[in-house]
From TrEMBL:
One of its GO terms (molecular function) is pyridoxine 5'-phosphate synthase activity. This is Pyridoxine 5'-phosphate synthase. Its main location: cytoplasm. Pathway: Cofactor biosynthesis; pyridoxine 5'-phosphate biosynthesis; pyridoxine 5'-phosphate from D-erythrose 4-phosphate: step 5/5. Belongs to the PNP synthase family.
Length: 257
């Protein structure tokens, strides 16, 4: 007897539409228009990371994105400035991520343990404002346990190392990292956390991790915006949804003898 498999959601990150806009100045391309197209093509929500240096998404973008009917996932550093802005905007969710000015993109998971009581207070403050709090973490047992302890509702597992190992052809390391991700997903779910995943995912890796049953949402941006150059954003999202559906269909499927 098989049990029903929960659906998996797709959050589309529109940061790099704003990166292209900002490279030249002006108003185009518009990340809000990209968000609208993404939702029309099957995205379940929109993710945007407002960085301290405003290198891509800007405050005005966040305010306009918040006006859309789709859920908004506000990626942000755990700073007083960002917490205050999140409480003003009241997005559906906030994902707290580590941030360094000199990095090109988020390089690792949040140090939940090192964040101490200050991080716990920020999670509590956001939750009290009715915002669902997610912590972007490496697949590390101690960090995940601490995320549950301080009251996060969600963890988003950092899939970047796994994707990098695959891209470099380092198969043994990729397999070991994927095993860590699966273990972490099970651990987090056992602690009552909702499990998301993201960073570096493409069609193939999204299909693979969609087959990990505790994972409820994938957040993908850079790859989809890159694919949109060649096939259009809506088609890229349709193909991503199809890849995720193929992965989800593996759960509970009978294995060949």
């Amino acid at each position: 007897m098989t049990h029903p498999v929960s659906p998996i959601r797709l959050g589309v990150n529109v940061d790099h539409v704003a990166t292209v806009r900002n490279a030249r100045g002006g108003l185009l391309p518009d990340p809000v228009r990209a968000a609208e197209l993404a939702c029309a093509a099957g995205a379940d929500g929109i993710t945007a990371h407002l960085r301290e240096d405003r290198r891509h998404i800007r405050d005005a973008d966040m305010r306009r994105l918040r006006q859309l009917s789709a859920p908004l996932n506000f990626e942000m550093a755990a700073t007083d400035e960002m917490v205050a802005l999140a409480i003003e905007l009241k997005p559906h969710a906030c994902c707290l991520v580590p941030e360094r000015r000199e990095e090109r993109t988020t390089e690792g998971g949040l140090d939940v343990i090192g964040g101490g009581i200050d991080l716990a207070h920020k999670v509590e403050k956001l939750g009290a404002a009715g915002i669902r709090v997610s912590l972007f973490v490496a697949p590390d047992e101690d960090q995940i346990a601490r995320a549950a302890d301080i009251g996060a509702a969600v963890i988003e597992l950092h899939t970047g190392a796994w994707c990098d190992f695959i891209a470099a052809g380092r198969q043994a390391e990729a397999e070991a990292e994927f095993a860590r991700l699966k273990t972490a997903a099970g651990q987090g779910a056992g602690l009552g956390l909702e499990i998301h995943a993201g960073h570096g995912l493409d069609y193939a890796t999204a299909e693979t991790i969609a087959a990990v049953e505790p994972v409820r949402e994938l957040n993908i941006g850079h790859f989809l915006i890159g694919e949109a150059i060649f096939v259009g954003l809506e088609e890229a999202i349709r193909q991503m949804r199809a890849a995720m559906a193929r992965g989800r269909a593996r759960i509970g499927a009978p294995r060949a003898a």
